[in-house]
Give the backbone structure.
Amino acid sequence: KQEVTQIPAALSVPEGENLVLNCSFTDSAIYNLQWFRQDPGKGLTSLLLIQSSQREQTSGRLNASLDKSSGRSTLYIAASQPGDSATYLCAVSQNIQGAQKLVFGQGTRLTINP
Amino acid sequence: EAQVTQNPRYLITVTGKKLTVTCSQNMNHEYMSWYRQDPGLGLRQIYYSMNVEVTDKGDVPEGYKVSRKEKRNFPLILESPSPNQTSLYFCASSSWGGSTDTQYFGPGTRLTVL
């Protein structure tokens, strides 16, 4: 059974710092890995999707890497801003009996202090 | 604008009173699913649908029903709600074409069962 773990559970850093969020998964047979952002009481917004054949994806100040063989992904946020404060979730997608199944980590709650 | 909508956004009800949470997407996606999010347990899949009239159980289907009579709609039905179904519910959709498919999430429905 796929398990996804995110460390740390919470992180607080001063504005302007670069930071890394970690995600690990137990089964390397994945279709893709997605990073989502969730603001309090709100829905999930997809930030980056890395296909299983890719090593990384970039969008603006965000860079996500994937090492499928070791079951790890990182989300790098450059020059952090207070507006980056949110919970970040990673999810791996698997093909289970022909259906796409997302398994989520429990998230990292990020606070950027002005 | 591509979006997934859910109604209602907030609902307080009493044990045993049947309710339906609607979900609609305007992206012509084949795949739709329902998740619940609980503190300490993360996001867990309730049901999913790969296309019209094709539905299947996720990880926590007990106490829920779904139907998929039209491609755009995927309502979640609680026939006899109980307090342990108090949660934040999300509907999601994606096309089903392989590893590049991003899941789009609705804004969430916060349900309280008294």
Notes: The interface with chain A takes residues 4, 31, 33, 40-43, 45, 48, 50, 56, 58, 90, 92, 94, 96, 98-108, 110 of chain B (CB under 8 Å). The two ends of chain B are 36 Å apart (CA to CA). The mean pLDDT of chain B is 92.
